[in-house]
Design goal:
The structure is a single chain. The protein is globular, with a radius of gyration of 12 Å. The chain is built from four helices and three strands. By secondary structure, it is of the alpha+beta class. The relative contact order is 0.21. It comes from Lachancea fermentati. This is LAFE_0D12376g1_1. Pfam families: BolA.
Length: about 90
């Protein structure tokens, strides 16, 4: 499982890695992908995450949970594309 998560970790930008590590620590995801979609300037990210911690939560509550974890980072961003799923 972690091999699949870490497979792309070596190629992450520093900001992608920071976001990846925060989400991995808090949500113990089965699948996680973090991409800077701003052309490398770190102002917009696309996150795709599957976690057992989302089980029983509506999509709105799943997104609120991710937003809470990343609240300090999101203040610096122009946008976030977020896709969440429970296992």
């Amino acid at each position: 499982m972690l091999a699949r998560l870490a497979r792309r970790l070596y190629s992450l930008t520093p900001e992608e890695k920071l976001v990846f590590e925060k989400l991995k620590k808090q949500l113990e995801p089965k699948q996680l992908q973090v991409r800077d979609v701003s052309g490398g300037c770190g102002s917009m990210f696309a996150i795709d995450i599957t976690s057992q911690k989302f089980k029983g939560l509506s999509m709105v509550k799943q997104h609120k949970l991710v937003n809470q974890i990343l609240k300090e980072d999101i203040k610096r961003w122009h946008g976030l594309q977020l896709r969440t799923r429970s296992e």
